[in-house]
Amino acid sequence: MHAAVSYVVRVFLYMTLKQARVLPHRDYDEALRRAAGLGERKRAKLLQRSASLYNGILVGPESLPSSANSGGTGGGMGPHWRRGHFRMQPFGIGNQQRKLIFVAPVLIHADQLQGELPAPKPYRAGAAAVTGA
Fold first, then answer.
1. Which of 45, 97, 108, 126 is deepest in the core (most CB within 10 A)?
2. Alpha helices (runs of H) in the chain, residue ranges in sequence order
3. Residues of the domain holding 89
């Protein structure tokens, strides 16, 4: 638990830097705004689809260092971190209800580790990737 809280605190501290990129995403609010001008049937359909949306913030540097952009030689996937993320988890009778859960970061192929742990990738907090930015 301490590691997760520490990570969140570091993200918030990063967000206060001048060179940090912080882009708000208002996917849920946008879906509700669009639903206001629709008819009853289309509004109900859009509101049902918007149950899996949420507002978020994309946080990260403008560009990655050149060493992070270089691809591998095409071999098997080495040890790496799968980033933590939020998701809408179905639950209840017939999985009709949704709740927001956090899926914790996990180390993939940890059995192949030789030496130190790989550094985690920069964290992107938000609903979806920004296109065209």
1. 126
2. 2-15, 27-35, 40-49, 66-69
3. 76-116
